[in-house]
Amino acid sequence: MSVEAAAELSAVSIKGNLEQFLVVLSVSLSVATISRLFSWFRSIPYTLLLVIVGSGLAFVDVRLVNLSPELILEIFLPPLLFEAAWNMRWKDLKQSWFPVSIFAVLGVIISVLGVAWAVSTFTPLSLPIALLLGASLAATDPVSVVALFRELGASKRLTTIMEGESLFNDGVAVVAFLLLVGIPLGVQEFSLTETISRFGVFVGIGVGVGGLIGFGISYLTQRFDLPLVEQSLTLVSAYGTYLIAEELGGSGVIGVVTVGLILGNFGSRIGMNPRTRLIVSEFWEFLAFFVNSIVFLLIGDQINFGSLGSNLGLIIVAISAVVVTRMIVIFGLGNLSNLFTEIDINFREQTVLWWGGLRGGVSIALALSVPEILDGRQEIIDAVFGVVLFTLLIQGLTVQFLLERLNLIGDQPLRQEYSEALARRTALNRVLKYLANLGEDEINEEGDRAAEFLRYQYSLVKGQLQSIEEELEVLRRDHPSLMSIELEQVRERLLDIEADTYAELIRSGDLNENLSPLLRGAIDEAIARTLHEETEA
């Protein structure tokens, strides 16, 4: 083939890929828009709507694009993991570390073995293939459930446990899959000691790479104040950590989670001013929405209904095994956690954690990455697709009903109303301060009509501020617990001022290293005392 022909073929390929990408993006954004316009669709999580639309396209044999497992694992997975870790507050995760840890580690082991036993016993699949299927299905993907928790106001602890478990068990499940994939290929034999040592190496390298990059970027961003550069560094850290950890023989997933936790909880505090943190958070919120839109649409689009029908028995066994093993994990390990920690995960919360253990993009990616030479690959893919569809469309659509029946919907709408009123008060106070600082001469320089308008605006803003203060007072009187929101905002502002001062002194050369926060303990103690006094009153 001539150089010109090869170049022309490459250009056609690039154009075709770009057209496919635009079609996928257009369909995704159309679903997002329609779901907000019609009230009936608002009750269905956005990610589930994407799967439904993708399934409909697959049913009429309209294929948007070929889904590559490497594309999900190397391009889509890092930003999804980083965004979740960036927004995960360490203090919340630390309080629930024990249940999160045992769900993520022991839970994956129980899931893999439970699914493998059921599938190898009740279907013709061999045990090595069944173990691969179990590892593929061990990773939970509760994106839509966590979004629903936040929207409806489920407890922060419940949301933290669900999201924290998903963050870490993704990494453990991927490591388990990589450890098991060589067994059916005959290139390795199962050895408990070797498996444990390899698992330690995978996790250790991932944590080490994530820690080095996370702390390195944290201290680097102390030296300058360039929002776009700092935002770009977070993007590079997500992909760079994943690729470096994988290249060194470790877990890229664990690495990304580690670097995201460090930058979100440490680096953003010592090296970024509040405005930069907001810019970075909004950037990752957009990127997560963008990637989720594509992944969940393509999950539905890749379904082969004919192949699913021929493996219906296997799918039913896999669904049953996933539901039962999830029940054992949550109720068994949840009660074990209650024995050893002060965190009491009650029966109602355990029920939601059990039913909310959805499967999604990671499971699909692992199934599609099974080597094509392996007998049973198509069965694994069909079983995983069947389970993912069941968990997303059946469990996902009934989680809200379950939350309502178990009376686990919190006061989030009320807290949102209070937070919005606080934000409006802050904004109007700044407007009022600006108007008050305008001297009479400056007002008169604007002309008679402009001066009259400015004086009118001053009185109008004062009146609106008074109305908001009255609204806040009523909310505080009727719901004293809302006071914690205002105190928490004050706490964050004070800690930001302290951290920004240290960072500024480092940038100017007056300080060589960052100092640990001095005010944190004193502020927390003052908040606790104030809330106690309010409650007593």
Write a structural description.
By secondary structure, the chain is mostly helical. It has three domains: 1-42; 70-200 and 292-410, Up-down Bundle (Na+/H+ antiporter like fold), CATH 1.20.1530; 413-536, no CATH class. It is 81% helix and 0% strand.
Outline the fold blueprint.
Layout: H1 3-37, H2 39-42, H3 46-59, H4 69-86, H5 90-95, H6 97-104, H7 106-122, H8 127-136, H9 143-152, H10 156-180, H11 182-185, H12 192-220, H13 227-247, H14 252-270, H15 274-301, H16 305-310, H17 312-340, H18 347-355, H19 361-368, H20 377-405, H21 412-437, H22 440-445, H23 448-478, H24 483-508, H25 520-536
Largest sheet: none
Distance between the termini: 85 Å
Q: From the helix content, strand content and strand pairing, which structural class follows?
A: mainly alpha
Radius of gyration: 26 Å
Number of domains: 3
CATH top level of the largest domain is Mainly Alpha
Extract low-pLDDT stretches.
none
Instruction: Tell me the CATH architecture of the largest domain.
Output: Up-down Bundle
Percentage beta strand: under 5%
Count the beta strands: 0
Mean pLDDT: 79
The number of helical runs is 25
Q: What share of residues is helical? A: over 70%
Q: What is the CATH topology assignment of the largest domain?
A: Na+/H+ antiporter like fold
Shape from CA axes?
globular
H/E element sequence = HHHHHHHHHHHHHHHHHHHHHHHHH
